[in-house]
Amino acid sequence: MRGSICFGLILGILLSFFFLVPNIAAQESATIQATATVLSAITVVGQNNLMFETVIPGINKTVDKATVGRAGAFQVNGKESAEITLDLTLPDSLHIDSTAAMRIGFSNTDASYDDGSGGGQTVPQGIINPNGPVTQTLGLTGQLNIWVGGTVSPNITQTGGDYAADIRLTVAYTGN
Question: Regarding beta strands 83-89 and 134-137, do their DSSP bridges make them parallel or antiparallel, or are they unpaired?
Fold first, then answer.
């Protein structure tokens, strides 16, 4: 009797495993990869200062964006044909020190660009407004040249000396 109880107990345990264990079916799986291509960094190089040279008190002086050697110049390099934003930070005055300032202004046609498909600085691909962010496309070689002109307005009692202020070009990919 003791043997039949053990046998029954073992049989009961085995049967409970049979009913409690889920059915195991054949399984399939697949794997994919997450990928991304990081664009090369944008480089911006200031190539030429915006140079007004000698200025006479009381007489405004303008440098056109097409004036080779005197207009401000930047070169941008990045991913070919990529869309970018250009944002120029422009001063409102040039300074000798904290006591002497001379006004400078930039019209909405005081900048131009060429991505290699135009005629360079003297016959650029197009004109851009330096006063606000602008969306452009890098050329087929990944390059874009920007030129900036402007006008200084010395007053009649302008203090003599060398005046200066920074012009900064910030460039970023748009993602388009």
Answer: antiparallel
Cα→Cα distances 90→1, 45, 124, 130, Å: 103, 16, 21, 8
Distance in angstroms (rounded) separating the CA atoms of residues 146 and 44: 10
> Over the stretch 57-77, which tens digit does the pLDDT of each residue have?
999 999 999 999 999 999 999
User: pTM of this prediction?
Assistant: 0.79
CATH fold of 43-173 reads: Immunoglobulin-like (2.60.40)
List, in sequence order, every residue forming a beta bridge with 45; answer none if it has no partner: 75
Residue boundaries of the structural domains of the chain: 43-173
15's CB contacts (< 8 A; 6+ apart) are none
